[in-house]
């Protein structure tokens, strides 16, 4: 994790990890897995029985079978066809279910792991990588487990069973049956190498078309206003042409490839018929055996084609699975520090983002237990960075940020999330009831406590909700505006009842008139907690116990409002400038 070249990147699972993951999925659902494989084997067996029995009938007629015996075996042949259909259908259905269950498990453990990752790790990995894994890759793995995997398994099992059947009929002819194998192996390897990039390029070209069309449609007014129709049309046409080029690539590949695939079953068919014929004349094999094995070779067509077709999807699904499983290889950060008390201290803190320059330069700040400290300063001074360090999202480069004497970034997340809460302007409203949205912070809180928390943040809109706490929130249900979402987030803080609350512009979305009111109510509710409020609006500063002015990554001034005004320094000039604007 500390290797600089890998710094931040989410890992990708290697072969051993993938094998482990597949093994885990199989073992967890072993009864169903064994059942599905048994069904596939039986279905393939029933399919292979047909040519074998036909061979028996041919030889039987030659050796004087009675008509009723021939009828019996022919009846069995028909039964085999029906049995194969039924078994395969059942096997497919169970196989898809098994795959879906496995995919769900994988998805759940992926999400659980991602949610346990510290925010700083997620941010360093880049939300793009994580988003691709969460949406595209997880979907591709589900497709692999529910469809491509079972189809591939059906194909491979059928190939094996047909081969075994050929050897059972006649080991000599079985050897001839294998003459298709080299063509199959060569074709499969080549296809695997050539097909994946071609399919990937086709998909990329397809999403480019979608992007261009969406952009043109979304910006249609601009397009019309600037008379860009021709240009946008040409762009769309160029993309479509590039996509067509990719499609031609696929067709070219398949044009070469399919005849090669045909060789896998045509070669042994010809070899078995010709060589088998000669061997029959020599008395080494019977006509029935030659016919049976020749027919078995012709049955290769289906499974060869099926497994080849799934091959590139199988490979791409495997690559997606390696990325999904990769998150489990993230080393767990060892966070075992135990805070003794609730005092927050920043001492000589130096910090910079990634490889960037320092944005905090030896900063020290000691919020007192239970005080309301307001941090002010110009934009870009480092206020939010201080908030992130106190919340344990980032680690200082040097110096220390501690909670009750323990480095905050070493306190286990489950402990930290209960004791220190950072509220920013980004508020997420989950698609769930209002009650569920609030209970996230305090699962045991009853309705009375939830209503009390909402009243504390002056969320009067709750009274107008159609179903009170049972109202479904979220874009498709009852949408909340920014101010309401902020009040919801603040109500959660009250319910969570932490020792330390960091409010980073937390009331910025609420209109200035009621923001003051919300802050006053919040301050009353959080009485006794350490509140560190980061503010652009200086009105919050006036009532603070203490004010810290941050400039260029350092504390420029610290003290009470009246004191700092009297001192006539950085705070005084900020204050008068703000008053001037506000007046
Ligand atoms: P403030 O909250 O006082 O406006 P910040 O703490 O957000 O200031 O930013 C302090 C400095 O750190 C700024 O120079 C800003 O550009 C930089 N910074 C903030 N966030 C990041 C980030 N995620 N990556 C790189 N630089 C950042």
UniProtKB/TrEMBL annotation:
Record keyword Cell membrane present: yes
ABC transmembrane type-1 domain location: 34-316
SMART domains reported in the protein's UniProt record: AAA (SM00382)
Short name of any one Pfam family annotated for the protein: ABC_membrane
Membrane topology: Multi-pass membrane protein
Source species, domain of life: Bacteria
Transmembrane segments: 31-50, 70-88, 152-169
Residue ranges occupied by any ABC transporter domain in the UniProt entry: 344-577
Localization: Cell membrane
PANTHER family: ATP-BINDING CASSETTE SUB-FAMILY B MEMBER 10, MITOCHONDRIAL, ATP-DEPENDENT PERMEASE MDL1, MITOCHONDRIAL
Identification of the protein by name: ABC transporter ATP-binding protein
